[in-house]
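for the writeup, i need someone to sanity check this before i put it in the appendix. the sequnce is what the collaborator sent (i think, or maybe the updated version? ugh). structure was predicted straight from it, no edits. if anything looks off just tell me and ill rerun, i have time this weekend
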Amino acid sequence: MSKKSRRRRQTTRPRLSPAQMVQPGEQAESPKPVAVSPAVSRAPARALRDLREEYPYVAADLKRIAVIAAVMLVVLIGLALLLV
């Protein structure tokens, strides 16, 4: 049986991207008052950019799933034509 160590464990900080470090309701950059016209809102563009930073692998996974689905559909149609 191994002996217990008396060293304190270092507190490990979670590995988060800068976009994930921002709390909801806060701004990622320094808080500066910005005049935003009501007709043009940049919140959806900012949210989309943040999602792309946080989940870069999702687009590749969706493309892979689409290719697999297309191949399976072609195989099913081929089998249906062959067996009928």
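The chain has a mean pLDDT of 78. Residues 4 and 10 are 16 Å apart (CA to CA).
thx in advance!!
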